[in-house]
Fold this sequence. Notes:
The complex is a heterodimer of chains A (about 230) and B (about 280).
Chain A: E1 2-4, E2 9-14, E3 17-25, E4 28-32, E5 37-41, E6 46-53, E7 59-69, E8 73-81, E9 84-91, E10 94-101, E11 107-112, E12 115-123, E13 126-127, E14 137-145, E15 151-158, E16 165-168, E17 171-174, E18 177-183, E19 186-191, E20 203-206, E21 214-219, H1 225-229
Parallel strand pairs in A: 7-12, 14-17, 14-18
Antiparallel strand pairs in A: 1-6, 2-3, 3-4, 4-5, 6-9, 7-15, 8-13, 8-14, 9-10, 11-12, 16-17, 16-20, 18-19, 19-21
Chain B: H1 4-43, H2 45-69, H3 75-92, H4 94-109, E1 117-120, E2 123-130, E3 134-139, E4 144-148, H5 149-154, E5 157-159, E6 165-174, H6 180-193, E7 204-210, E8 215-224, H7 228-246, H8 264-275
Antiparallel strand pairs in B: 1-2, 1-5, 2-3, 3-4, 6-8, 7-8
Helix pairs in contact in B: 1-2, 6-7
Amino acid sequence: MQKLENDAVLQIDFFGKKYIFERVNPFTVRISSGTLDTVASFSGELSVAMKKEFYVRPYLIKFKDSLRLAPKSQLKLFLKLPLVTKLVLESGQKSLEVDRHIEYNRTAWHGEVHRGVLCTYVEAEFAFDKPFQTRDALVPLRILNKSEVPREISKIVIEPENLFLVEGDNGMFTNKVYILAIASNEFSVEYGTKTSAMVINPRILIDRKISIARTVLIRFDRFGIARELGI
Amino acid sequence: MIDLYNIYTQYTSPVKAFLILAVGLVASRIISNLAGKLITSRLGSHIGGVTKNIVFYIFLFTTIIASLEVFDIDLTGILAAAGILGIVIGFAAQASVSNIISGFFLIADKPFEIGEAIEIEGQGGYVLDISLLSTKIRTFDNRYMRIPNSTVANARIVNLSRYEIRRLDITVGIAYKEDIQKACEVLDSVIKSNENVLMEPEPLTIITRFGESSIDFEIRVWIQRSVLFTARSELIKEIKNAFDDAGIEIPFPHRTVYFGSENAAIANLVKKHDQI
Lengths: 231, 276
C-alpha cells in the first residue's frame, strides 16, 4: 500500500503495466496508463494498493499425473490456488478498482453438458513437505482414502465461497480442505475452519466467517459422458 | 309529501345491481391479482399473467350475470343465445381458437421462454412475447416477426439459449501428400491455445474420411454459448495460419471451364496449362 499525498504523483507497476496516479487537488485524482486516462473523484487520505481475491468461479484443478492412494491412507500437500490481483485506490472504507489481473483465463465445464457449472481451469502445482513461494495462495490439502481398496484421483473442484484467505510471513494460505476419495472420480470435499499450522504470523485477508466445516459431494462422470456426447 | 317507500321500491333493483357490479369488479380484480401472483411464483410471470386475465374475465362474467338477475331478467334466453353465438363465433374464429389452444400448449410445454434465442423453421431470433394468439420474435437481423401460435406449436423449434455451453464442429481437410500426425499436432496446439475453448469436456480431433481431394478432419470443441461465433471465427483463422506456417496444404477442388474450342486465346491458355 502506498500513500498518495496532495499534489503528488505516484507511479505503480501493475504486472508490466505502468499506472500514474496524480492527485490534482484534494478531491480529484488523475489516473493514466498506456490505455487508460481517467479522472476519479476521491477525497480523504488516499492510498493505492494491490488486493488479492479468489476467482469468482469454482476452481477445477486437474492433476498433471493422477494421484494414487493406498488403502487407509492420507496424503498431505500444499496446492497452489490462483488469485485475482486488483489495483485499487482507497480511502478508509471506500475503494475504487482501477484494474485487475487475471492470470488463468482457461475455463472448464464441470458436470453434464446440459447441467453443470463453468469453472476456472487450473493445472495443479503442489508441494509436499513445506509451503513453496508463490504470489498465489496455498491450500493445505488433505486427501484421504478410508476404504480398503486403492483409489485414484485425477482432478478436484474447490468452491471459493467456502474458503478464507490469510496472509502469513511465509505466503498466503486458505483454510484446510479435506478430500475424501469415495470411488474413482467420486469424492467429497470438506472445508475446514482452520488453516495450516505452518503459517507464520497469520493475518486475515478474506474472512468468510466459516465456523462449521462444510462437506460437499462431487462426482465426475465415471464414463466421461460429456466427452462421449462430443463424438 | 315524498313517498319514500315508493322511491325505495323504484330504485332498489338498480342500486342493488350497481352494488353487485361494483363489489364484483373489485373482488374480480383482487382475486385475479392473487391468482396471478400465486401462479407467477410457481410457474413464471408469463403463465401468471395469462391466468390473471382468465380469472378476471370469469369473475366479471359471473358478476354481470348476478347483477342482471336482480332485475328478474330470465337469463335462460340470453344464455341460450350466448351459446349459439359462441358456436357461431367458434366456427368463424376457428383459427383464433386454434391459436389460443396452441398458446396454452406452448405455455404449458415451455419449449422457450421470453428473452431466449430460438430458431423456428430456420428463422432465428429472440422471443419478445408469447401471448394467447401469437408469439412475437425479434429476428437476429432486427426485424419484428409475429407467428400465430398454431404455427409455432406445429413447427420444429430449436432453442439456442437453453444450455450454457455448445459444441462447435469445424471440418478441415489436408492434402493426401501431407503427414496426418503432423496435422493432428498442429490442430491440437491451435485448440489448446485458444482461450475460448473449454478444457473440459475435452476437445476432440478426429479423422473423418477420405475426401474427394483431401483427408478430412473434424474438430469438436465445447464453447461457452456467448462466445460461439467469436470462437468459430478465431479457430478457422488460427487453423489456416497454423497450417500455412507448418507448410500443410488445405486442398480445394479445381474446376477448369472452356468456352468453345475455336477461341484462340483460350486454346493458348489450355496449351500453356498443359505444358505446366
